[in-house]
Automatic annotation (TrEMBL):
<dbReference type="InterPro" id="IPR052436">
    <property type="entry name" value="LTO1_adapter"/>
</dbReference>
<comment type="similarity">
    <text>Belongs to the LTO1 family.</text>
</comment>
<protein>
    <submittedName>
        <fullName>Essential protein Yae1, N terminal family protein</fullName>
    </submittedName>
</protein>
<feature type="domain" description="Essential protein Yae1 N-terminal">
    <location>
        <begin position="28"/>
        <end position="66"/>
    </location>
</feature>
<dbReference type="InterPro" id="IPR019191">
    <property type="entry name" value="Essential_protein_Yae1_N"/>
</dbReference>
<dbReference type="Pfam" id="PF09811">
    <property type="entry name" value="Yae1_N"/>
</dbReference>
């Protein structure tokens, strides 16, 4: 017996077919979120390494200047005792720089580094050797790369 067109049982779940596009969208969206999270993690790590390197590059350069001045302190004659006092204060400031990487320590590091830079400026003026720090930011950029800084670059030195 032949089935008439009215007797055909069309029991298709249309909701599944209609939701196929939405399901694929959700899968693609989730994959995009996961990929983005991985990339942001890596970018954050790279930025952290660069930031740390640049900050401690400056500290290393300043420590090098202190060692140089201490090894040649007798050449400064009449300002030797004043210079020795300023160098001691600068070393104390440098020793006070924290290497801990939490929000409070980073803020304290910035404050302490500003004190170090000010003391360094005083010493360079006293020695008449300002040229040793004039191009420090250019040196840091050449060696450590450039990055966006959180403070006004003009006010750094």
């Amino acid at each position: 017996m032949a089935d008439s067109p009215n007797d055909i049982d069309i029991d298709i779940e249309t909701d599944e077919i209609l939701n196929l596009e939405q399901e694929q969208y959700q899968i693609g969206y989730q994959e995009g979120v996961e990929q983005s999270a991985k990339e942001q993690y890596l970018e954050g790590k790279q930025f952290g390494y660069q930031t740390g390197f640049q900050r401690f590059l400056i500290v290393g350069y300043i420590r090098g200047l202190v060692e140089d001045w201490e090894s040649h302190i007798s050449e400064y004659g009449s300002i030797e005792s004043t210079l020795r006092n300023h160098l001691k204060q600068l070393k104390n400031c440098l020793d006070g720089l924290s290497m801990i990487n939490d929000e409070d320590s980073v803020a304290q590091f910035e404050i302490q580094l500003k004190k170090v830079r000010n003391k360094l400026r005083v010493i360079c003026q006293l020695n008449k050797e300002s040229w040793k720090i004039n191009d420090l930011d250019k040196l840091v950029e050449q060696v450590g790369g450039s990055m966006q800084v959180s403070e006004n670059v003009v006010e750094m030195w």
